[in-house]
Amino acid sequence: MRVRHKQPTLVSMWMLDVFCCALGCVTLLFLLNNRTATDDARRNENALADLETAEKRLAAALTDLESARLKLNSEAAGREKLSVALAELQGLELNLTDTVTRLAAELAKSQAASDDLAKKLARARDEAKTARALAAATLAEVDKLQAKADATAKELAAARDRSADADELVRKRQKEAADLAKKLTDTTAAADDLARLLRKRDDEKAVLVKETADLRKQLDDLDGRLAAARKAEDAAAKAAKAAAAELAALKAKGGADLVAAQAEAEVLASRLAAAKATIVDLQGEKAKLADKVDQLRADTEARFAGIVMSGRRVVFLVDVSGSMAKKDTTTADPGKWPLVVETVGRVMRSVPTLEKYQVVLFSAQARWLLGDGEWQEYAGAKSVEAVTAALLKVRPQDDTNLYAGVDLAFRLRPAGLDTIYLFSDGLPTSGPGLSAAQQAANPPLKELERSEILGKHLRRVLADEWNRPAGGRRAVKINAVGFYFESPDVGAFLWGLARDHDGSFVGMSRP
After folding, report:
1. pTM of the full structure
2. How far apart are CA 351 and CA 383, in angstroms?
């Protein structure tokens, strides 16, 4: 009889259902624990580890069970192993039941903890909401305060800037006031010197006028004496004629009367010779007095706006910088340069002793107007027309390098230069005289400060080198004509330059 083997009844479907349910519960508990009780995760780590170990063991048991089933189907000898496996599975089921029970208790605890945490979280959220509202209000207030602080900071910065600007303006105004006071002092001194010079010139003119009047009176006296001498000569001539007639008559009579008449004739002849000698002397003295009167008249009349016109070998030093065609630093004046040219021609015509001349032009550089620096013969109106025509073709431009112009003019001193007429409207603005520190100053020197330094250097070089009397040569006289249009600084500089070198200065303050 064939023995049929039955399936073991220890493992049934309900056990698998229980196992699957248990596994689902574990998974559900795990997920619930993971979602709602993250703070209790550490506390459940051991339980989860046990569960994982049980799952592994259950999986291994299931694997063994499946193998056992296969073997039971093929071999009856596997019953004992299956019984062992079922026993192990039952033990595992018991352990799993205990684990599920424990996990359910822990899940209940976790749920309670989760509820507490939810309540705490709700309270925390309420507190956080309140805190957020308070923080928002605080931030809004802080923003307002920050805005006010920024506005206050800006106002403070603006006030500081205004204060700094005001301080700087005060310093500038104080410096300007000091400069103006210095200029006023210098201008007052210059005005006093000019007044003294004008008084001196007026006194000299009065003396010349008085001397001329005295000489004219002497000349009139000489004319009277000469007329008297001529009358005496005429009388002596008439007496001589009468004596000659009487002598002829006496010769006819003869005797002692003839001797007396001859003696009287000799006396009359000597008187006539003396009268003629007196007339010659008086005529010579009259000629000398007339020459002296003419010279005094020429010295009195040969002037240009107060400058005594003199010089035989003369250089006309003409400023052709850009300002010579401007009314001020920004306004062009088309009539200024023609006025300058006309003035040069008038001065040139007014020099009665002019024999040779040359014209030097200077701006940024210096150059000769005519030729290469050789003397030009003065030919009266022809020379004046040639110079003015050449000057009208020149276009004023660039800055004012007076040093270069004076240097070029004094190259004619060995060839007999005796007088310079300077025509300019500005202070020196370029040329030697500034030290390296002054050139690199930051901020740069102001224009007036720079011009004062350059002007002092030029006057020092003129006095110590170029125009120093040496080798029997007299110093060159420098006269100046200033087109400075209301600028006292230019007038003071040109006046000082002319005074240093025995010259005169005239300022044409209006175009």
Report:
1. 0.47
2. 13
